Amino acid sequence: MKNILSTELMKKSITGIASACLIALATVSSGWAAEGWKAAFDEVCSKVDVSGTLSSKELAALVERADKLAPEIQASGDPSKKVYLQRLKKCRSMYVFMIDSKADSGK
């Protein structure tokens, strides 16, 4: 009887530990995903200040990256995603403006 109780107790302990590990892993992996799009966001929007010096090809690549990044941010569970989406739209708009300006000026 003592063996049966200790076996059941061990099973419950192992199950509890496994559950805690899965929860921790899910939390960490969602944090990594958030860090992934935030790093991509930083890369895309960090070029706004120097957008006047970039070629039309470089600007078009940034617009394309912004377009790919927006759904990723939208799908995230980050509470500040609306802020990031607005900022990304502004970065994208600046790049499009610069492309248009370069096309108008013949550069």
What does this 3D model show about the protein?
- The protein has one domain (2-105): Up-down Bundle (Methane Monooxygenase Hydroxylase, Chain G, domain 1).
- The chain is mainly alpha-helical.
- The protein has helices at residues 2-45, 56-75, 81-105.
- The protein has 3 helices and no strands.
CATH topology: Methane Monooxygenase Hydroxylase, Chain G, domain 1
- Which stretches are low in confidence, meaning pLDDT under 50 for 5 or more residues running? 18-22, 24-32
How much is the average pLDDT? 81
Outline type: rod-shaped
Percent in helix: over 70%
Give the DSSP E fraction (strand runs of 2 or more residues).
Answer: under 5%
CATH architecture assignment name: Up-down Bundle
Rg estimate, integer Å: 24 Å
Please trace the helix and strand order, writing H or E for each element. HHH
Overall structural domain count = 1
Structural class: mainly alpha
Distance between the termini: 86 Å
> Sheet bearing the most strands, described?
none
The CATH class is identified as Mainly Alpha
Annotation field: number of helices: 3
- Say how many strands there are: 0
